[in-house]
Design goal:
CATH topology of one domain: Rossmann fold
CATH architecture of one domain: 3-Layer(aba) Sandwich
Helix content: 25-40%
Largest sheet: 9 strands, mixed
Number of strands: 12
CATH class of one domain: Alpha Beta
Oligomer: single chain
Structural class: alpha/beta
CATH superfamily of one domain: Alpha/Beta hydrolase fold, catalytic domain
């Protein structure tokens, strides 16, 4: 596909089946563990209360990392495995982290009263500025999955000045057609709500072959998330409209996401077609497409290590310098890191002469089993000090050549 920017992270040791399931089944570890660094807040917004948990406080010009979960989940079920991964903790300790739960989806949420009108997807996006204002964030880097990715994309379209970057997993930019709507209605008549949601989260192959993980999520969705509230969120997500985005130059006055975007999908995920469609509608010079090997529908659960590494490169490409040594290369998690100031945006020198075509840089690191290729503007690579750190990490300087994609 023209303009496709793809990174592949083959996992030399994929997470064993049942490993993530064991973690999910141990609710004492997965849901009830208390971290005193996390603070819970209920924030008033124009469309009702929003439950948020936050760790840290805004520091300097660093953005906050703000997450939004998929339908059927909450921030714990969706992101605990990812944010508790050791490499991700090494990254996020330099940022304030803010997890947002969709209305009524948090653990222990009360059931909405009869006749409650659940916010539309546009209204869910319009609730987020209240969170940003409440905590005094200047801007955020959003990480969203599925429905949460759609909400964050809407947020970035409506309030572009508040969004520094986006990581969108399993995003589907298209609304449901009549056939899809009818199929969803029929599924609701013949299946339980948790099973209906599972078909959204996992591919048919995963539902058949990865039964331990699927069964764990079935239990958690049925027992942890209020079913009446979940039904309202599910109905609203399936009533969403198309994201109003088009690749610049394809239509007059095209609207698109202005910030850097990393699109993520598993190589065996039900959302793959939607993510590829979204990639075709975004600016190829600011968008990266990441297809995770051996990850399926929940890459943040099944491949947290590779996703953490990709997120680190994403931050570096935006100019947030991470002097983090790879534990596999430096001998352990206790390896020294730079002081917090190293994570502030680096000053950008004057840009080089304009280039008329997209250029391709690629590099590989056989020493850590990572094969990585990325399409970027040559001018961006030249002016971003972060790339010198990437070159140091992978052991050799990338070479440039014309990209096969269209600019």
């Amino acid at each position: 596909m023209a303009g496709l920017q793809e990174l592949r992270f083959p996992e030399e040791k994929p997470l064993l089946r049942g490993q993530e399931a064991a973690e999910l089944e141990n609710s004492d570890t997965f849901l009830l563990a208390v971290d005193t660094n996390w603070k819970e807040h209920d924030i008033e917004t124009p469309y009702g209360l929003l439950h948020v948990v936050i760790r840290g406080s805004p520091k300097g010009n660093r953005p906050a990392i703000l997450t939004y979960h998929d339908v059927g989940l909450n921030h714990k079920l969706c992101f605990n495995t990812f944010f508790n991964f050791e490499d991700m903790q090494e990254i996020t300790k330099h940022f304030v982290v803010c997890h947002v739960d969709a209305p009524g989806q948090q653990v222990g949420a009360s059931q909405f009263p009869q006749g409650y009108q659940f916010p539309s997807m546009e209204q869910l996006a319009a609730m987020l500025p209240s969170v940003v204002q409440h905590f005094g964030f200047k801007y955020v880097i959003g990480i969203g999955v599925g429905a949460g990715a759609y909400v964050l994309a809407k947020f970035a379209l409506i309030f572009p000045d508040l969004v520094e970057g986006l990581v969108l997993m399993n995003i589907d930019p298209n609304g449901k057609g009549w056939i899809d709507w009818a199929a969803t209605k029929l599924s609701g008549l013949t299946s339980t709500l948790p099973d209906t949601v599972l078909s959204h989260l996992f591919s048919q192959e995963e539902l058949v072959n990865n039964t331990e993980l699927v069964q764990s999520y079935r239990q958690q969705i049925g027992n942890v998330v209020n079913q009446a509230n979940l039904q309202l969120f599910w109905n609203m997500y399936n009533s969403r409209r198309d994201l109003d985005i088009n690749r610049p130059g394809t239509v007059p006055n095209a609207k698109t996401l202005r910030c850097p975007v990393m699109l993520v999908v598993g190589d065996n995920a039900p959302a793959e077609d939607g993510v590829v469609e979204c990639n075709s509608k975004l600016d190829p010079t600011t968008t990266t497409f990441l297809k995770m090997a051996d990850s399926g529908g929940l890459p943040q659960v099944t491949q947290p290590g590779k996703l953490s590494e990709a997120f680190k490169y994403f931050l570096q490409g935006m100019g947030y310098i991470a002097y983090l040594k790879d534990r596999r290369l430096s001998g352990g998690a206790g390896s020294p890191v730079a002081p917090p100031d190293a994570w502030t945006p680096a000053p950008v020198p004057p840009p080089p002469p304009a280039r008329s075509s997209v250029r391709c840089c690629s590099w590989a690191s056989s020493c850590c089993g990572l094969e990585l290729s990325c399409v970027l503007l040559a001018s961006k690579a030249q002016k971003s000090p972060a790339f010198s750190q990437i070159w140091a990490l992978v052991g050799r300087r990338p070479t440039f050549g014309l990209c096969c994609g269209r600019g």
